[in-house]
Amino acid sequence: MTTPIAQDAIDVALEDAGAFDTFVKKDKKSSELSWSNLRYTIAAKEAGAPEKVVITGCSGLVSPGQLTCIIGPSGAGKSSLLNVLAGRVSSGGAHTVQGDVRVNGKLINPLTFRKNIAYVMQEDAMQATSTVRESLEFSCALRLGANVGEQVKASLVNDMLRSLQLEKCQHSPIGNMLIRGVSGGERKRTAIGVELITNPDLLFLDEPTSGLDSYSAYNVVQTLRKLARAGCSVLCTIHQPSSEIFHLFDSVILIESGQIMYNGSTADVAKLYDCPVHTNPADHAMFLMQTDLEKMRATSATSASHALALTKAAASADALAPARAAGGDAIVPTTASFWLQTKTLARREWANTTRDKGSLIARFGINAFLTLFASSVFYQAGDSSRATYQLNSHFGAITNICISAMFGSAQPMILLFPYERPIFLREYATGTYGALPYFFSKVMVELPLTFLVCCETFAIAYPLIGLHGNWILLVLCAWVLSLVASSTALLVGCILTQVKQAMEAAPAIFVPQIIFSGFFIRIEQIPVWLRWAQYTCFLKFALNLVMIVEFTQCSTTAKNPVTQRTWQQECDLLLKQSEIKKDMWWVYLLVLLAMLLTYRTLAMLGLKAKAKNFYGE
User: Are 132 and 170 a contacting pair, CB within 8 Å?
Assistant: First the structure.
């Protein structure tokens, strides 16, 4: 039975149902989604163990223009059902999906139909420094492509902001745990708007009220009801809605252990399961599923048969007819060009970098402090005219600068990228952009930033240490080293999922770089069967370039008081002992550039493979 409070809520929702007509309806016919004998299993990891049955041959229906929720306890299969229907899980590897899925009676492959479904994940993975308006404009620019005019795009964004009641916060950043931004409800409505910009046939949401207070959750669901009334069929999962929220839904799917217990009208739940007066039907159904499942199954038998009959009727009604689509002046999503994707991504990346003042100050400030500290320790160590000059100290100062450049570029990438991965996975899955433009745009922003850091390093270290090599060549050598180091860290971040895993793997990659640098032990002293490892260490090749620049022209008049050789002769001997050939500088540079390209490519392919595995491509 619908309570007076809940009925008032529904009336309010219906009163403003036309708020989305400006960008959703467009003479649009609502889509009907049905599935039959749907089964999803995961193979056992151990031989002889039974497979895990996630969805057990269920059938169901989402009626056109309705707001439908999937309710069930934790582990019941809510999100799994949603992901299978959305084409984000498919057969492959350990996963097996069977059954028929139809839209408007036409049999579809959820994997290929996926781009017609707007999917809002439970975690709102959006760029923290982007504003609400910029997030919508970004989605509009890339998902509608160049076929839609700029005026139309601007109108769509303005209509979206107004319809989702985001006008007041449109210039506020999304925010995260470290950056203050909009509220949870506003963030969720922004995430919905980002997906709705393409005027989809179906909208799926995974736990849209998770982490929200009761009023914010109510506003989000009320917004979803308005969308359904405007012609967009909505299906979402929700763990345990309040009574007010429950009665906003048109229909409900009750699921337990991968089996659908009920698929029908929300108003019939209380009557079917003998819900006590003044009790939330959702709470009562959840309690019954977890305490008396057999009784629940027996009670649901009639309802389940009815739902199956509806599904079969929907499957046969227009079996040979094409799926209905938006008509009139509907906006048709297209794929943006490579250059449009790259330009838009680079603009967002640059804005994200420059707006994150804390990270910028930390990067340049910490680099300046550490360089100043090290330069003070190695004060005038490179001045060969001093009586206290030692070649090993000079070499040590250069090695320290290179090691600092390596870690200074690698560590931010290791810490940052795992946090950005969910954003890439969401936007890549919806076809917003490709992996190549994403990585290319990051390089475009990283190049000038890293160059400025290297300039800062040698602006401090060069005069204090007393270096005498060509300043700009030293900067360029450190620049290439920093880019290769960040590429290596990027590869680690793409392959590994957690920041903790990446940090634990970092020593295994970067410590050998230091060992084979040639400072702590001469290359000729390393056992022959291990000496080959130097050719895999980018720090060694970068240090070779720096030593060629710095030690090619040493003082020819001063002598080593111990060996009586000139310092130029000592420098030549050092290069020889380190197996560095001056005329091979171009080989060292090409090897570094090849490593840079290889690591970036592997990182891109690794992240793309993870996206495919995650979404079942």
Answer: yes
Domain total for the chain? 2
Contacting residues for 426 by C-beta, under 8 A, at least 6 apart: 121, 125
- As given in the structure block, the two tokens for residue 200 are 């989809």
Same domain, 427 and 356: yes
Its domain, for residue 18, covers 4-31+62-84+109-299
- Would you say 491 and 606 are in contact if contact means Cβ atoms under 8 Å apart? yes
Residues 285 and 348 grouped into a single domain: no
Q: Are 85 and 36 in contact (CB under 8 A)?
A: no
Which residue, of 299, 329, 356, is where some domain finishes? Answer: 299
- Find out whether 116 and 199 touch, Cβ atoms under 8 Å: no
Q: What is the DSSP string of 557-612?
A: S-B-TTT--BHHHHHHHHHHHTT--GGGHHHHHHHHHHHHHHHHHHHHHHHHHHHH
- The answer to whether 258 and 72 have CB atoms below 8 angstroms apart is no
Alpha-helical regions (H) of 230-337 = 243-246, 269-272, 281-291, 293-317
CATH of the domain at 223: 3.40.50.300
Helices and strands of the chain, counted as H and E runs: 21, 10
For 152, the token pair is 């139309």
Q: What tokens does 410 get?
A: 């690698």
576 inside domain: no
Alpha-carbon gap, residue 556 to 552, rounded angstroms = 11
DSSP string, 78-130: HHHHHHHHTTSS-SBTTEEEEEEEEETTEEE-HHHHGGGEEEE-SS----TTS
Is residue 381 within 8 Å of residue 396, measured between CB atoms? yes
The pTM of this model reads 0.80
Q: Report pLDDT for 321.
A: 37
Domain final position from 299, 314, 347: 299
List strands edge to edge, sheet with 52-62: 52-62, 33-42, 95-103, 106-108
Residues 27 and 170 in one domain: yes
Mean pLDDT of the chain: 82
d(CA 229, CA 14): 8
Residue 247 is given by DSSP the state T
Q: Contact, 137 vs 166, CB < 8 A? A: no
What's the pLDDT at 492?
86
Phi, psi of 525 (to 5 degrees): -90, -15
Candidates 398, 379, 447; CA nearest to 546 is: 398
**Contact 239/207 with Cβ under 8 angstroms?**
yes
Question: Residue 479 has what pLDDT?
Answer: 97
Rounded Cα distance between 28 and 327, Å, is 6
Token reading at 241: 């809605």
- Kindly give the parts of the chain with pLDDT less than 50: 1-18, 25-26, 304-330, 616-617
CA distance 110 to 302: 29
Give per-residue pLDDT as tens, 501-511. Answer: 777 888 888 88
Sheet of 67-71, strand order: 117-120, 202-206, 233-238, 67-71, 251-256, 259-265
Q: Which of 480, 508, 506 is nearest to 492 (CA)?
A: 506
Residues 240, 375 within the same domain: no
